[in-house]
Sequence to fold (294 residues):
Amino acid sequence: MTDFRLWLEEMKSYFDVPILTLGATQLTILAIIYLIVFSMLLFYLTGRLRKWIVEQLLTRTKMDIGARQATGTIIRYFIIAVGFVIILQTAGIDLTALNVLAGAVGIGLGFGLQNIVNNFISGLIILFERPIKVGDRIVVGNVEGDVMHIGGRSTTVVTNDNIAIIVPNSKFITENVVNWSHGDPKVRFRIPVSVAYGSDVKLVERLLLEVAGENPDVLEKPAPAVRLMEFGDSGLGFELRAWSTTLVHRKGLLISALNLAIYDKFCTHGIEIPFPQRDLRIRGASVEVATREQ
Fold:
């Protein structure tokens, strides 16, 4: 037992050797281990706490998933900030001694960490203002998909191909963002349709409205509408306008279903879908056309 105590005292004296001095504070190996262990524990526990708040505590309220995610993330950041200060103080580090490093850290933030700080501040703005939230269908740049997670530095967007794209938060602050489900989930889809000249336009209008009315994903209110948009080179250009809330995240599926139904309706009622036609005129020369008997 005596040997074990001597070994512990020897190890303690080894870990208490100062390796760095910050003002009046001497940083030892034991203090560094303490900081690392408790910092990792802080991040782990706050992550678990955030998950519990989002998935259990706030589910009893009327808050949507985006608001719950934002609230949980903000609470986690606050606890991390307070907890890290407590960890520094209990480790015996005088916080006033860190003022020595403030200038160097400021320079580092201004140059090497500029993008990281920019994305972090942008993430806080997103969480407070909520221009986007978890579950929204968004388009930013060439990225289109559903928002799955909003983090401190980046946001995870999953496309319809089930590909996760990590987008820096600053993109949502500095660029134009299309949010398909912000505020009101109703979205109007426009389906262009071309029919041949000479077609019964009233019949075409009626058939297009029937197609929209027979699709379960098209809303009755606002009601679908048909517009004659142009007299094209090859035919009359109509546009079916239909509202939906169920397939906003899969608009290609709704457009395809409507186009298939339109094609079937037109074929059944003899409505011709035109194809480009061109007249060829040859001037100033005679052309002989020879036919060969088979």
About this structure: The longest strand covers residues 187-195. The chain has three domains: 2-112, 132-179, 187-269. The longest helix spans residues 29-57. The helical segments are 2-15, 29-57, 65-90, 99-110, 114-129, 171-174, 201-214, 251-269.
